[in-house]
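Researcher: Hi, I'm a grad student and pretty new to this. My advisor asked me to get structures for two proteins we've been looking at. I'm not sure of the right format, so I'll just paste the first sequence and hope you can take it from there.
Model: That works fine. Here's the first sequence with its structure tokens right after it:
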Amino acid sequence: MVEPRGTGMALITLRAADEVRASQFGTAEGDLDAEMVAIARAIVAQRTGSFDPTTYRDRYQEALRELIEAKMKGQPIKPSAVSAPAPVIDLMSALKRSLAQQAPVRVGRVNKEKRTRAVSDRRQASLLLPVSGGRKRKGQPDEELSTAGTRRRRKA
């Protein structure tokens, strides 16, 4: 690490030589894919450019210089306006408020009168498959459903 000391600079070694270990990466075995190498070179060439530090402004340094010059001239220094941070929204309280605004939902059994029967979509009648079985309709003979395997028990 290099740091200023008086009129010069001091160089400090952050790690001793015996503290630095060799990398634990394996070596590439075999040949590299030539197509992948060409793609990598094209990407690097496309992203490579010249760096011009004059295109960037250090606003902190500029503001610090202005502050120092104002102090040297004896001008009063006015603090810059600090914007207030946006209020933090408590998500849990917002959720509780929104739930309190909704009507309570009843959980339980629905009366048979309130049940609606699912109506099949008439536009897709050609896609519906005929299914045999189900409820016994009026006029059907009892002998079809009288076998022990197809008889269902009613729950009491």
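Researcher: Oh nice, that was easy. Here's the second one.
Model: And its structure:
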Amino acid sequence: MTKAASAQDGAAPDPLRGTLELLGDQWTLLIVQSVFLRVRRYEELRARLGISPTALSGRLRAAVDAGILARSPYRGQGRTRHEYRLTESGLDLWPLLVSIWTWERTWVAGRAEALPNLTHVDCGKHTVAGLGCGACLEPVALADVRLVRLRPAHSTGGAARRFRRRDAEPLAVDPLLFFPATMELLGDRWSTSIMLNAFLGTEHFSEFERELGIGPSVLSDRLGRLVAAGVLGTGTARTRADARAYRLLPKGAAFLPCLAILIEWTRARRPAGADASGPGVALHHLACGHPLEPVLLCEHCSVALSRKALAFDLDAPAPSPALR
């Protein structure tokens, strides 16, 4: 695992926090996924997700305000109504959805059998989309990446937990609507912040406490949950024999594509102008020396995947592109 290099702390708020507040919420991710699958109208979304009107309206409003969905008029029942369509920024989220599918299918027990296959239309084979470098098109793992902190760690954070257990129960029958393992990492403010700092090289309890400004009881709870989830492991600290260290296990390291894509998506949405603030974490590919621009690679032909060249096999005799 590589250690993070620290740059000079900046005072500007980290837009990565806003990204994680928006997308580190299972309802929002499921709404975006539904619109990709052409479920675009309010009542259709309610019927598919079983979400309350208040929660659905709030998530749709936040997604429109964030520029990932746009309201589009259509005529229905004699009057003008609106449906929701993905903007270019919203369409650019397809690698995140595919990476979540890949991680769950690879690392979460039972999900390989439950989730549909993903087909690369160009080569015609079922594929698992792995992380690659856009500059050299080589596969990328955590050991191949140098993570650089550009601002204080406590200025990044994920969404507070807003997806209740009773919300998940009716969704559990449909594997495409149920991602509890991902939400343990992405859908909780503190868990996401701990994972991000673990990728940056933080290991000790006191370091997490100091970097995040988190209370010891909350930190202990979240670390325990991440250990129980199999993404962090415990061992003896390198500096003190009586201290415990928390280090990424292979399951946790394999979540790198999701974080890399969120960081890149945040960077790409930065407004034009020299004063615009980018995300507080940068990634560099050690092999080619370029900043990491994450792409997804087909495991068979090593081609960088495009949205329109992917198809989920959704109960059809022949796959048809799903992420339109």
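Researcher: Is there anything I should tell my advisor about the second?
Model: You could mention this: The radius of gyration is 20 Å.
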